[in-house]
Amino acid sequence: MSRVRTDRWLGLVAGLWQAATVLGLVAEPVEPCWRGREGSTFQDWAFTSPANPTAPEVSSNPHGLAQASVGLGFMASGWLRDIGLGTNTGYWDLGSNGLITVSIPDRFGLGTDAWKYVSVQVVYWEDPPLFVSPSVSVSGASMVARTNWVVHDTALGTWREDWSWWRLDSNSASATVVITAGPNGGVVDRLVVDTWVLDLPRPTDLGLAADPGQCSHSNTIYPGVPVADGCVVTHVTCTPPSGATLPVGVSAVSCSMIDAWGAGHHWSFAVRVDDVAPDRWRLNVRRLSPPEQGLEICWPASCVPPVLEENSDLTSPDGWQPVGASAQCGGDRCWVIVQPVQGPRFFRLRRF
Predict the structure, then answer these.
(1) CA pair distance 5, 34, nearest whole angstrom
(2) Which of helix, strand or coil describes residue 159?
(3) What is the pLDDT of residues 36-70, one digit of tens each?
(4) Which residues fall within 8 angstroms of residue 185, CB to CB, at 6 or more apart?
(5) In the chain, is it the N or the C terminus that has fewer CB atoms within a 10 Å radius of its CB?
(6) Alpha-carbon gap, residue 254 to 252, rounded angstroms
(7) Which fold has domain 278-350?
(8) Short-list 175, 182, 62, 200, CA closest to 120
(9) 302/7 Cα distance (integer angstroms)
(10) Number of C-beta neighbours around residue 225 at 10 A
(11) SS3 state at 218
(12) φ, ψ (nearest 5 deg) of residue 55
């Protein structure tokens, strides 16, 4: 507040304050829905002393102690305990274009993809056209929402609260908030800043075994997919949906997430369902009668039929070739009839 304005307040307080209708202060800031969650921080400056820089009177931040530094502008009165602006006490008269710069230690997101949300609540004095709402900025962030309401009316002016929400699309270990008074000055009584880091999903392919006796895996749950919480994450969908039954083979999964302010994040991954456990792949060989009819080679039936290969020399890895006869399947087994030949023969099943 400029010295001219301060003199005005001091002169008016004696004559007008007795007649002013002053309501009890209702300045408790609103608690954002993410406060207290893992990855969140909370700091509340009531400015009860002229310390500069100053730590918040109330704080919950496992990453360190936040600090607010005040930069006074032209004709600022600095910290004031009480000059009769309602029941509020302890505030900063910033002067013309004065600043409060807040540095909040925070954590990096777990990956390169992370959103950081910042909630800023400022209780300030309004008496237009001289004193109006201060501007708020968060370094590197975009404002996604803002609201403002009356906290306390007096005969001299109004205490108001400005609440803004911000989102950073980058991954950083701190948040910087700047409150700037208008060209005619500004008075700030309280500042509350909350932050929360939301780690975005990192796609990871998933490998599963089919359910016993089935050619599919039921109730397929995708790890790392966030749940819509009605707070910040308001919409999550996956196709096929989490909990679906996926067939043997590779299924492409596509997911999307939308936050409360319309920002979207999309990712995809693959789910592979294998049809049988390795110990099921056992060959049974039976010589037919009469012998010139050949050999019957059979194995358990599966959802994705393997290929029967043969080789005459186990020391030659490149010697494996598919047998010429086609496999037949019936019931719970598949088989191939191969004709007898001279010399050793080795058989194996290969799954592609």
Answers:
(1) 40
(2) strand
(3) 998 899 999 999 999 999 999 999 999 999 999 99
(4) 1, 2, 5, 73, 75, 76, 93, 94, 95, 96, 98, 130, 131
(5) C
(6) 7
(7) Immunoglobulin-like (2.60.40)
(8) 175
(9) 91
(10) 16
(11) strand
(12) -85, 160
Asked if residue 231 lies in contact with residue 33, where contact means CB atoms within 8 angstroms, the answer is yes
Going by their DSSP bridges, the two strands 206-209 and 264-274 should be labelled as: parallel
Closest CA to 165 of 175, 156, 154, 152: 175
Q: What separation in angstroms does the CA of 260 have from each of 143, 167, 199? A: 13, 11, 15
* Degrees, nearest 5: CA angle 35-36-38: 110
Query: CATH 2.60.40 occupies which residues in the chain?
Result: 278-350
How far is the C-alpha of 246 from the C-alpha of 152, rounded, in Å? 59
Contact 251, 270 (CB under 8 A): yes
Q: pTM for this structure? A: 0.73
Distance of alpha carbon 115 from alpha carbon 32, whole angstroms:
16
Report residue 159 as tokens. 């205490």
| Cα→Cα distances 140→115, 261, 289, 333, Å | 12, 17, 82, 64
Give 297: exposed, middle or buried? Use CB within 10 Å, 0-12, 13-18, 19+: buried
**CA 200 to chain CA mean position, Å:** 5
